[in-house]
Amino acid sequence: MSSDFIFTVVYVLLCICLIYPPTEFVSAGVTIENLFSFTLGNQHEGFVLYHLKRHCLILILYSLLPIDYIILTSFLGYTDFLYGFYQTFPFFSSCFLTFAVILPATSIYQVLNWKRNNYEKHPGVINISKFCNNNVDWKTVANNIDMEYRSVDKICLQTSTIVTVVVTENWIIKVTPLTINVVHQSDASLVVKEANSFDLSPNNTISVQYLNIEVKSERQGVEPFIIRINASDFRDLKDRVARSITILPNVKFHQSILDQFVDVFKETISNNPIYETNEISDRCIGCMTVDPNVKLQKLCDDSSESPDKCTNCYCRPMWCSDCMAKWFASRQEAERVNTWLSSKCTCPMCRATFCMLDVCLINTVQRE
């Protein structure tokens, strides 16, 4: 494998990491924002202006990637590779060279157009300008956003390494690499359109869910936009926004880790043997709303002599599966969610130790 081909592959990978930086790059500070912080400044001092400058910088840097490849290839002595590629594919080589020259020029022209009259033609400023009332200009609205962003009473959801959702007292803001979408909470409506689940690994029964939430404004001319958040952040978002969030009937998701664990708990114990009994309480003593449907009985092969080994429970059925799952979760370490299913717990009544294999659904047998 030639060195010029390896250089090309490495350069393409670096470009991808620059455009969509992985978490390793973000942790190491290898991002456009950190590398050019001396030019961008601090977003806590001027949130809107910071991102307007950031958008201009990103557009120029992205546009320079093709021509930078040509310059670096020539500088490192890979001219034979470029010449050979040109001889083999003259049409595509000419198109690429033309594109590499025109793209930066077009981007610079676009940035100059955005900065004309103090960014008045920037897409983010155009979005902000739609919320100007009583003949005020967009700078007044931007100052209001800046002040609310400096407040500690806000939430910032990093939906990806390039997209951030900020919810302040009065604003919902989505920041992307090239624009800012804003909606005032007083005329905003949020609708959960879709929920997507992804398994973290083949051996992990707990998955991660992402929600696509459409944000609309009742104000004329404001385009709706989609924010994509982790389902575990839904409660924080719900507590921060002033309006209620509508969830479509066909969208099912877990609003917390506990809700997700309850479903996994119930699915897991459904594979255990059924326990038949005619001695159950009238109502689950945990929630007092449904009949008990689980019984603890030692079925696992835990024969160790350790103090926390599984033991027999002689309590009659008094709990439903939901309450038992919540009790089980409450006795685990909150920071180690991935170990919950393999952990143990104690009976809420007699304190007998049990594991997931010892929880059985019951089948009520009628007395003769």
Helix/strand/pairing category: alpha+beta
Q: Termini distance?
A: 82 Å
Number of helices: 12
Helix content: 25-40%
- Give the overall shape: extended
Structural Rg: 29 Å
Report the count of strand segments: 13
Uncertain residue segments: none
Sketch the topology as an H/E string, one letter per element: HHHHHHHHHEEEEEEEHEHEEHEEE
What's the arrangement of strands in the largest beta sheet?
A: 1-2-3-4
Strand content: 15-25%
* Main beta-sheet strand count, sense and barrel state: 4 strands, antiparallel
Average residue pLDDT = 87
Characterize the structure shown:
This protein has 368 residues and is an alpha+beta fold. 40% of the residues lie in helices and 18% in strands. The chain contains twelve helices and 13 strands. It has helices at residues 3-19, 23-28, 32-35, 37-40, 47-75, 79-88, 90-115, 123-129, 138-150, 234-240, 257-269, 321-330, and strands at residues 155-158, 164-167, 171-175, 180-184, 188-199, 207-217, 225-230, 245-247, 275-277, 294-296, 344-346, 353-355, 359-364. The strands form four sheets. Strands 1-2-3-4 form a four-stranded antiparallel sheet, sandwiched between helices. A four-stranded mixed sheet has the order 7-6-5-8, with no helix packed on it. Strand 11 and strand 12 (353-355) form a beta hairpin. Helix 1 (3-19) packs antiparallel against helix 5, helix 6 packs across helix 7 and helix 11 (257-269) crosses helix 12. It is extended and about 80 Å long. The termini are far apart. The model has no long low-confidence stretch (mean pLDDT 87).
